[in-house]
Design brief:
Organism: Paracoccus nototheniae
Radius of gyration: 18 Å
Pfam families: SQS_PSY
Shape: globular
Protein name: Squalene/phytoene synthase family protein
Number of strands: 0
Largest sheet: none
Length: 256
């Protein structure tokens, strides 16, 4: 029940956020590690049962624990919840929105319009980035800028995972290339808006705003029709990941 368990989970299953945490200010690392480890557990919960009702019960367990923490009740000993409580205290109650946003996953229903995807991404990845950015010093006045970055990063991550999502019936049906291109354009526009206004955010928030490696390249290839995200998306090599994180560490530039 230590921070090490969360760190190892993040290293294995979310290497981009793990790398970004290493770049974070020391006082922010425990909060980010536990937040991202919690996000992984919540994202997995709906898929731990093929039965929608059982899947929702597993997700509800997380909602209940977080609500209890928000009310001041420490969690039972747990690899994620215990260090989360130590880092967030009663503020952990605010994180239940991340679990609530995943209820749709329990039903295994695909989206039928790009706008639904955008709303889902804003409620999941978007909310996660807003919470992380606030913890890293982003004030309420820059919420819209963080929202632009979150939309861009979240849609890019969703498009990169689309082949797997389609197989799980969590993608888009029917699979129309123009829908994927429209989502890529929204992602690109969000990143560009955030980049234009990046000076309003503190450098301290860079780790929370990092979108991952090779995001603009992926989006441009989808928009140009050179990549069909329903079939396959370009893999990220270890070198590309290290190079992207090195740029973040050396410059603090989370924008592209």
């Amino acid at each position: 029940m230590t921070l090490d368990a969360c760190t190892e989970t993040l290293r294995q299953h979310d290497p981009d956020r793990f790398g970004a945490v290493l770049v974070a200010e020391p006082q922010d690392r425990a909060a980010l590690v536990t937040l991202y480890a919690l996000n992984l557990e919540i994202a997995r919960a709906p898929f731990q049962s093929a039965e929608p009702m059982l899947a929702e019960m597993r997700l509800q367990w997380w909602v209940d624990r977080l609500d209890q923490m928000g009310a001041g009740t420490p969690p039972p000993l747990h690899d994620v919840l215990t260090p989360l409580w130590q880092a967030w205290g009663t503020q952990a109650g605010d994180l239940s929105v991340l679990a609530e946003a995943r209820r749709r996953d329990c039903d295994r229903q695909p989206f039928d319009h790009p706008d639904q995807v955008v709303a889902y991404v804003e409620a999941t990845t978007g909310a996660l980035m807003q919470i992380a950015a606030r913890r890293c010093g982003a004030h309420e006045g820059v919420r819209d800028i963080v929202g632009h970055q979150a939309r861009g990063a979240g849609l890019a991550a969703w498009l990169r995972a689309l082949p797997q999502l389609q197989a799980m019936r969590l993608g888009v049906e029917p699979a129309r290339p123009e829908d994927a291109q429209a989502l890529a354009e929204q992602a690109r526009d969000g990143l560009r808006l955030a980049a234009r206004l990046h000076g309003k955010l503190p450098r301290r928030a860079a780790a929370a705003l990092y979108p991952g490696p090779r995001v603009p390249r992926l989006l441009s290839e989808i928009i140009a029709g050179r990549c069909d995200p329903f079939a396959v998306t370009p893999a990220i090599t270890p070198f590309q990941r290290r190079a992207s994180l090195a740029r973040l560490a050396l410059t603090g530039h989370w924008w592209r």
